[in-house]
């Protein structure tokens, strides 16, 4: 808690001087944390998927025969290529893409949250209704748009063209939007109802570590399928 308190104090100090830049840097750092989590999860899943193959080789080395070992190795680990030698090294280019996206998108989020604050002000006698109005606008307008920005930016940054962007939208945009509606309405109610404006984007980005990790995994899975 002491560390958290110091971080909040530092954030307040920098925010008072340069609110937009401070929020942009904070968002970029949290985006990097999220992708690091996603890459760690991917490495763990890869190692776990390799265990049956390792056990298989151990049994073969002990002289125990396994039926169809050479013909159907994928049945032991359907998500792992038979020639895989282990988890891929940490992808710093991918990390940079996620940090860049968080940095670039912050000004738009900054303006959007400010607009919602002006359109639906919280008052001493009415806080819940304006907060719900903000959530409705955010989820109906900004959430679909934000996902469009994310998948387009990531695909182009990875070197993909128009057809890759279209395919990614066809394959994972709607499922991801559905997942968004499971998590974010509840998060945003708390955010708009309780958090001061300057903490709203960092709060979303902190909760969004898990969400961005999910997006990172979804984006990677789709790239591997292409």
UniProtKB/TrEMBL annotation:
It comes from the Eukaryota. It comes from Knufia fluminis. This is Uncharacterized protein. Its main location: membrane. The keyword Signal does not apply. Belongs to the peroxisomal membrane protein PXMP2/4 family. It is found in: Membrane. It is a multi-pass membrane protein. Keywords: Membrane, Transmembrane, Transmembrane helix. The chain crosses the membrane at residues 98-120, 140-157, 199-217. The keyword Lipid metabolism does not apply. InterPro entries: Mpv17_PMP22. GO terms for cellular component: membrane; mitochondrion.
């Amino acid at each position: 808690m002491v560390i958290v308190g110091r971080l909040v104090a530092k954030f307040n100090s920098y925010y008072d001087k340069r609110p937009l830049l401070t929020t942009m840097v904070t968002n970029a750092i949290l985006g990097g944390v999220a992708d690091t989590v996603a890459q760690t999860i991917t490495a763990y899943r890869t190692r776990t998927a390799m265990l049956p193959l390792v056990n298989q080789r151990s049994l073969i080395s002990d002289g125990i025969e396994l039926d169809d070992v050479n013909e159907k190795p994928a049945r032991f680990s359907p998500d792992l290529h038979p020639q895989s030698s282990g988890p891929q090294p940490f992808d710093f280019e991918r990390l940079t893409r996620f940090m860049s996206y968080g940095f670039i998108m912050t000004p738009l989020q900054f303006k959007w949250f400010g607009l919602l604050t002006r359109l639906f002000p919280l008052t001493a006698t009415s806080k819940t209704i304006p907060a719900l109005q903000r959530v409705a606008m955010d989820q109906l307008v900004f959430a679909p748009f934000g996902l469009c920005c994310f998948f387009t930016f990531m695909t182009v940054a990875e070197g993909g063209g128009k057809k890759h962007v279209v395919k990614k939208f066809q394959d994972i945009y709607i499922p991801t939007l559905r997942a968004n509606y499971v998590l974010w309405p509840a998060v945003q109610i708390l955010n708009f109802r309780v958090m001061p404006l300057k903490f709203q984007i960092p709060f979303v980005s902190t909760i969004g570590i898990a969400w961005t990790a999910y997006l990172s995994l979804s984006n990677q899975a789709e790239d591997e399928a292409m």
